[in-house]
Amino acid sequence: MANRLDIVIFGVTGFTGLRTIPYIKNIIKQHRLSLTWGVAGRSKNKITRILKEFGKKMGDNYDNVPIIIADVNDEISLNQMTSQARIIINACGPYHLYGEQVIKSCLKTGTHHVDVSIEAIFIEKMQLLYHEEAKAKGIYIVSTCGMDSIPNEMGIVYLKNNFEGTLHSVETYLYPTITDLHLGGPSVNAGTYNSAIYIASNLFELFSQRKLLFKTKLPLIQPKLKIKLIHKSDVINRWCIFVPEPDPAIIKRSQHYNYEIYNERPIQVNCYAGFGSLFYMILGFIYAFWIVLFSQFAFTRDLLLKYPSLFSYGVISPEGPSEERQEATIYNLKLHGKGWSEKLNDPLFQPHSLPNKEMIVKISGRNPGYGVTCAAFALSAIMILTKGDKMPDKGGVYPPGAAFRNTSIIEKLQENGVKFEILHKN
């Protein structure tokens, strides 16, 4: 361990990996941390060129950053890479194709691992296969450490910590806003789109796999939080649609862990996406339906993957949004929590009255795809290295809400452009 770099960013020539670099460097400098870091990928020439171009653009110099050559399809090179790091920030997706190889290498060489995968079937498979081994070896493996699902997970932690009573249920509402409506072009990178297609194509397999995740079921907590498939929300004053993946599943895994490890009352959570008008919400619903349908068949799925711009009317592209559009996009997430003003000592006790207390918190940040995501990605790795004593069981495969709930990640996110605030409390 003494000769290892503390952090290695794998997949540094991609959108997310490259944009995580300034956050790593700035957080280390900001808090005077004695952490070393480097980057990894397949081509030294390409990495060197991109680092020079990016450094010039950011007004920084990355000429002396250590570079490790590693190919996700070469086990020996992966082992050489992971053996040179305390933690791998894995930005090399899609994870259903390339994620497991890296995790297996990390387990072999005793290296922690974080990623930004939203592919539930991959994430939950890693828990099924490797949780006990990671736990025994003292290695942390944490997925969805970006826009999905750090804000939702940490938002629930923030809400619960400030609730001053018993939190029973949470409804989350995600909606972006654009500060400059004249900016056109794509708004989503094809990598995120590809992951969504893979989630949709494996829904039926996912349901059967999910039954194996936990030995004990969550207790039935009343009153049951009902799903409102389509509704006009008073919380954000927008038309909303229920979003079944990936955040609800990630949050439920955290609730399972918190119940098993800490004997805490499970919180019921439903997640919604907000639209500016009923018309756009209906379009979004129809589009999601066709994406799910086309994802079930190899031929149509290949068309979706091959022509993202065509099938999204230009909203999605391999190049992703321009820098100007990224900076003009604001991430907004409101969480509406309900519960009781009394603190229940027994997590399974059912009050005879309906919830009598509520709270609304808001999380916001500029540039959700590469600002919020990269800040969360960098801080997830740094939390594991610096706050390991605040994390569960000294190792294992965890969702963010279970892994980072007792760390200072919320405070650090606020110092890096992600705002947490209480809007309403009674």
Unreliable runs? none
Into which percent range does the helicity of residues fall? 40-55%
Strand tally is 16
What fraction of the residues are assigned to beta strands by DSSP? 15-25%
Number of helices: 15
| Derived structural class | alpha/beta
Distance between the termini: 50 Å
Mean pLDDT across the residues is 92
Helices and strands in order:
Layout (H helix, E strand, L loop, with lengths): L4 E6 L4 H16 L6 E5 L2 H15 L8 E3 L5 H8 L2 E6 L4 H15 L2 E4 L4 H18 L2 E3 L7 H13 L3 E13 L9 E2 H12 L1 H8 L19 E4 L4 E5 L4 H16 L5 E8 L2 H17 L3 H9 L9 E2 L5 H6 E12 L16 E10 L1 H19 L9 E3 L1 H4 L5 H6 L3 E8 L1
Parallel strand pairs: 1-2, 1-4, 2-3, 4-5, 5-6, 6-15, 7-11, 8-12
Antiparallel strand pairs: 7-13, 9-10, 10-11, 13-14, 14-16
Helix pairs in contact: 1-13, 3-4, 4-5, 5-8
Which properties best describe this structure?
426 residues, alpha/beta, seven-stranded parallel sheet, seven-stranded mixed sheet, 22% strand
